[in-house]
Design brief:
This protein has 238 residues and is of the alpha+beta class. The chain is 29% helix and 29% strand. It contains 6 helices and 8 strands; from the N terminus they run E-H-E-E-H-H-E-E-H-E-E-H-H-E. An 8-stranded antiparallel β-barrel has the order 1-3-2-8-5-7-6-4, surrounded by 4 helices. Helix 1 runs antiparallel to helix 3 and helix 4 packs antiparallel against helix 6. The radius of gyration is 17 Å and the shape is globular. The model has no long low-confidence stretch (mean pLDDT 96).
Length: 238
């Protein structure tokens, strides 16, 4: 499936709590019915005071054109949909989001590991928004990531689900990819990947340590935002 990930930043003057309340109470009932959406999930930060963003909104589509019609294509943080519900959702965004400060990513999801049969409700997730090292092409980055790094990351202790998302339009994408690792225990996530507050981490054992060491072969760590949160499933049609 094709996925639109919005890294949400609240408007100036809103507290994180006020932002979440508006997002959940006012915006979500509109966004879940956007034309073409087959799955909609949100990720709320486990440590809002240290998180880089106020939340993640993740909308899935079966058809890439439906996604573009509803939410725009890569290359701009803003969009101007013409379909009824999508247009209504876009208008409401101006009530709580700082659109120009909100990165977003459109890609195709690849499920690398799934021990939960797709049921991610309430799981803890580490989302890494990947930026390649200088001197590496996007194609070289994806090849190394999928061929060398993914087999290690798949076996990180505590991981129950692992997705990689590859951009559909790499030349206009804000990131080279997204890696999503799910845990059913927050402490296991912190042990493997560190807690909020830093873009780097230093695991001391096992596959987590091996994965961190391998990261230096292809990622620009300091340029790579990350987000740790708990997933909330809003809509699932499949």
């Amino acid at each position: 499936m094709y996925k639109h990930v919005a890294l949400l930043v609240r408007q100036e003057g809103l507290s994180h709590e006020e932002f979440v309340d508006y997002w959940q109470t006012n915006h979500t009932p509109i966004a879940k019915d956007i034309e073409g959406v087959v799955r909609y999930q949100q990720v709320l930060p486990t440590e809002p005071d240290h998180a880089e963003f106020d939340g993640l909104a993740e909308l899935y589509f079966d058809d890439l054109e439906d996604l573009h019609d509803a939410l725009g294509s890569p290359g701009s943080r803003d969009y101007d949909p013409t379909k009824e519900v999508a247009a209504k959702a876009r208008e409401d965004v101006d009530n709580f989001l700082a659109v120009e400060q909100r990165p977003r990513f459109i890609g195709e999801e690849i499920v690398q590991k799934d021990e939960v049969d797709g049921d991610t409700e309430g799981l803890y997730k580490h989302s890494a928004f990947l930026v390649r090292q200088d001197g590496m092409s996007h194609e070289e980055f994806v090849d190394y990531w999928q061929t060398n790094h993914t087999p290690i990351a798949r076996e990180i202790e505590g991981v129950v689900k692992y997705n990689t998302i590859v951009p559909t339009d790499p030349e206009n994408a804000e990131f080279d990819g997204v890696a999503e690792l799910y845990f059913d225990d927050l402490e296991k996530l912190y042990d493997a990947l560190g807690s909020e507050g830093s873009r780097d981490y230093d695991p001391d054992r096992g596959k987590a340590k091996a994965a961190r060491e391998d990261v230096d072969n292809f990622l620009a760590i300091d340029d790579r935002p990350r987000f740790i949160g708990r997933e909330r499933l809003v809509k699932r049609e499949r």
